């Protein structure tokens, strides 16, 4: 009976650490299945295989997680880490018992001591899981990082687990002597700390690199914007140069009362200039009101790209935008997807147009992106499906990624609609201070 | 009665707009009246402060005051959230979306020689009147919910289903040609109309738009081909509904 309870607590440790690490709820149903399944396996196999039965449980848990997330690497990593953590905690507790209470492993094989030990292991594992979640969470926020090093990370944790079990197995052969436990504990602890250290440093380096890359991209975008402004300035200079001459000519016509030639001159020479004033360069003027450099960078670069594709691209920012309550990397990713998507679709229309507006509202900032779309647009829900794209395979990550980012952020909502031949996307980011009141609204 | 407000600082143009509006009201014998025609925004706000109205507002964007016509529009919204706002402007090109989403303006009229202003004004009057009458005889064809500053309204017949997001309190409404997120509880949504049915812990489906239910896969196919999910607990009730509507 004690064994049953101890085992159950241990399985609970695994099953509860998993959602802690993943930073998301896994649902009561799945949790119960995982718990019941691992408990059954544990009860059946432990008498036969001893500690090795955990490996079978591990395979089962990985299966469950894969069923839920459909991602192999993630399921393996997330299932293996709690095991490692609980082994480390196990040995730490054992070592503690040995050193402080002078209880050997044989003493805590049964009775309330076993339960107490297992509860201790559980608490320690949870604590470590929260620590792990912090590391893991930072990593998952940097998705490109996880994509690149996910395999490495998974291999690392799996190998760690194997090494641990190899040691345990050797210990088992030798009958768990106190010396053995002590040696193993120190070894595991040391190894574990080393591993954490390496991970931590790796993450720091990676994050620095990503930041640097982002900065580089931003810099390039701003350079482009500056060039655009310079072009504009040159145009103005040219106009200034011309306009004295224009005035002189006109005053000459007026003085001589030659209305007919004045009119011709006006229509042929001056009207074209005023039309030039409405040319593409001037349509980006409103970017002046965007006070966030990153945002300005991505907006200008995408809109210039759109104009190069002969799309009528316009931006409206009536009030200065100083703050958007969203992580700027995520915000730029969202905007990038929105604009790329709009441009891709608009290019295929007869009268391509893309319109962007950043609007300050009472409790939020709204980013509106609209574009002309073909009359035979596919159904909206299909566009959001992962892997869907109007341009063949492997390209359709855009909108599904966008939806994911927005779903994760707690103060942003997305509104997508097709109306009167226009594809409209509204991303609304609520101010941090309004987060509470919006619920009651 | 729909009350009409005009704010335009050019006296010539104000006279013109006022004339167009009053002529049309008289000609069509509409249930409307011009109550304020002014060049000062304060006149309109003052009237709104003292009277509870549903209005139709023609606002010049570049009034010669500290605040722009858009800011005036936003202020009007605080008193009259049903009213129809129409902007009259010289530079429509650069602020169209802002009109629409900042103050939920109904329309805008460009002041240039290419636009038939009279025609545009009468169009706006018609639209505003239609909307006003529809709202008055509330036949509840629209699902409406407020999320922050934003009013979301969708035709009931367009709604396919609601789904909870992974973020707490966030709901995604799936409609034909629209997907929109708002803050709320699925339970409250369920109570808003009898067409809605709770088919899953995280889904509420519009019964009218179900095409078929796959009992073994627990999937509901909607009119546009989209799939909504059901859980075994709620599947039985769904079966009764579908058989009922088919039979």
Radius of gyration of chain A: 32 Å
Q: How many structural units, i.e. domains of chain B?
A: 2
Strand content of chain A: 5-15%
Largest sheet of chain B: 5 strands, parallel
Can you offer a commentary on this structure?
With about 450 residues, chain A is of the alpha+beta class. Chain A has 2 domains: about 1-215, no CATH class; about 285-440, Histidine kinase-like ATPase, C-terminal domain (Heat Shock Protein 90). Chain A is built from 14 helices and 5 strands. Chain A is elongated, with a radius of gyration of 32 Å. Chain B has about 250 residues and is α/β, with parallel strands linked by helices. Chain B has 7 helices and 15 strands. Chain B has helices at about 10-30, 40-50, 70-80, 95-100, 115-135, 185-190, 230-245; strands spanning about 1-5, 30-40, 55-60, 85-90, 105-110, 140-145, 150-155, 160-165, 170-175, 180-185, 195-200, 205, 210-215, 220, 225-230. A 5-stranded parallel beta sheet of chain B has the order 2-1-3-4-5, with helices on both faces. A 5-stranded antiparallel beta sheet of chain B has the order 10-9-8-12-11. The model of chain B has no long low-confidence stretch (mean pLDDT about 85). Chains A and B meet through strand 2, strand 3, helix 12, helix 13 and strand 4 of A and helix 4 and strand 10 of B. Strand 4 (about 410-420) of chain A pairs antiparallel with strand 10 of chain B, so a sheet runs across the interface.
């Amino acid at each position: 009976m004690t064994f049953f309870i101890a085992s159950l607590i241990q399985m609970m440790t695994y099953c509860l650490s998993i959602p802690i690490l993943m930073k998301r709820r896994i649902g009561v149903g799945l949790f119960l299945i995982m718990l019941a399944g691992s408990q059954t396996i544990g009860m059946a196999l432990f008498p036969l295989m001893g500690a090795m039965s955990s490996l079978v449980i591990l395979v089962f848990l990985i299966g469950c997680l894969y069923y839920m997330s459909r991602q192999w690497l993630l399921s393996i990593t997330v299932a293996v880490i709690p095991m490692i953590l609980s082994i480390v905690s196990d040995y730490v507790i054992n070592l503690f018992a040995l050193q402080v209470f002078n209880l050997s492993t044989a003493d805590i094989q049964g009775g309330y001591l076993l339960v107490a030990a297992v509860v201790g292991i559980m608490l320690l594992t949870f604590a470590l899981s929260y620590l792990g979640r912090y590391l893991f969470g930072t990593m998952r926020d940097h998705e490109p990082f996880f994509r690149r090093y996910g395999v490495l990370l998974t291999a690392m944790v799996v190998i760690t687990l194997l090494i641990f079990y190899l040691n345990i197995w050797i210990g088992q052969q030798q009958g768990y002597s106190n010396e053995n436990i002590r040696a193993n504990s120190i070894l595991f602890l040391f190894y574990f700390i080393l591993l954490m250290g390496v991970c931590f440093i790796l993450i720091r380096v990676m994050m620095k690199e990503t930041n640097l890359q982002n900065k580089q991209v931003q810099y390039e975008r701003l350079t482009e914007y500056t060039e655009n402004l310079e072009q504009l300035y040159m145009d103005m200079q040219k106009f200034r140069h011309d306009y004295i001459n224009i005035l002189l000519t006109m005053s000459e016509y007026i003085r001589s009362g030659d209305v007919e030639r004045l009119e011709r001159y006006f229509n042929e020479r001056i009207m074209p200039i005023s039309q030039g004033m409405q040319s593409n360069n001037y349509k980006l003027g409103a970017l002046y009101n965007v006070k966030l450099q990153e945002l300005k960078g991505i907006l200008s670069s995408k809109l210039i790209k759109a104009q190069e594709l002969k799309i009528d691209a316009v931006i409206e920012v009536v009030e200065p935008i100083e703050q958007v309550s969203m992580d700027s990397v995520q915000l730029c990713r969202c905007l990038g997807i929105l604009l790329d998507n709009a441009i891709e679709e608009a290019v295929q229309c007869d009268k391509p147009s893309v319109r962007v507006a950043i609007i300050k509202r009472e409790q939020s900032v709204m980013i509106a992106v609209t574009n002309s779309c073909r009359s035979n647009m596919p159904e909206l829900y299909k566009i959001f499906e992962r892997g869907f794209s109007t341009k063949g395979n492997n390209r359709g990550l855009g909108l599904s990624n966008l939806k994911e980012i927005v779903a994760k952020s707690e103060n942003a909502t997305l509104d997508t609609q097709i109306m009167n031949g226009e594809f409209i996307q509204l991303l609304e980011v609520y101010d941090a201070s309004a987060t509470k009141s919006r619920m009651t609204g | 009665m729909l009350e009409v407000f005009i704010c335009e600082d050019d006296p010539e143009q104000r006279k013109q707009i006022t004339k167009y509006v009053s002529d049309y009201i008289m000609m069509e014998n509409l249930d409307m009246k011009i109550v304020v025609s002014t060049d000062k925004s304060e006149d309109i706000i003052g009237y709104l402060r003292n009277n509870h109205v549903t209005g139709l507002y023609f606002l010049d964007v570049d009034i010669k005051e500290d605040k722009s016509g858009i800011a005036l529009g936003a202020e009007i919204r605080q008193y009259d959230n049903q009213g129809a706002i129409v902007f009259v402007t010289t530079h429509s090109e650069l602020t169209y979306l802002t009109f629409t989403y900042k103050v939920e303006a109904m329309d805008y009229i460009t002041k240039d020689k290419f636009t038939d202003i009279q025609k545009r004004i009468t169009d706006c009057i018609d639209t505003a009147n239609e909307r006003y009458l529809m709202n008055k005889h509330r036949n509840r064809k629209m699902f409406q919910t407020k999320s922050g500053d934003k009013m979301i309204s969708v035709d009931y017949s367009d709604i396919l289903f609601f789904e909870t997001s992974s973020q707490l309190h966030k709901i995604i409404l799936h409609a034909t040609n629209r997907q929109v997120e708002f803050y709320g509880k699925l339970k409250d949504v369920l109570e808003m109309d009898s067409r809605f049915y709770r088919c899953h812990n995280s889904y509420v489906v519009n019964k009218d738009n179900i095409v078929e239910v796959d009992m073994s896969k627990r999937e509901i196919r909607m009119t546009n081909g989209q799939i909504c999910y059901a859980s075994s607990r709620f599947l039985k009730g769904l079966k009764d509904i579908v058989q009922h509507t088919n039979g």
